[in-house]
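Q: What structure does this chain adopt?
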Amino acid sequence: MLMDPECWMNHISLNLTTGLDPKGRKLRPAQGFEAADYFFPGYWVWNKVIENLAYLGYDNNNMLMMSYDWRLSPENMELRDKYFTRLKQMIEIMVNNKAKAKAVVLGHSM
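A:
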């Protein structure tokens, strides 16, 4: 697919009218720390940050990575995936599990 740019564009494109998935196609971002540590072998994205936070005592019990579909508008992220609803819920769960500890939210976009 990557060797055929037209095929790649067909699979990554959204419906021009709705801004959502075209009929018969469903593409979603990978989730979790593994989705953002390395882009491909040898090219790290968040791996060094994740490793250093782990050294300070953070792990998947007190740190969260929420991938998103960069192709979508914020409105469609919520409509299709309930992204902001899920993000809010996950932050609230983590804060409540840590006796109302403060939450730090770090955003990154391509």
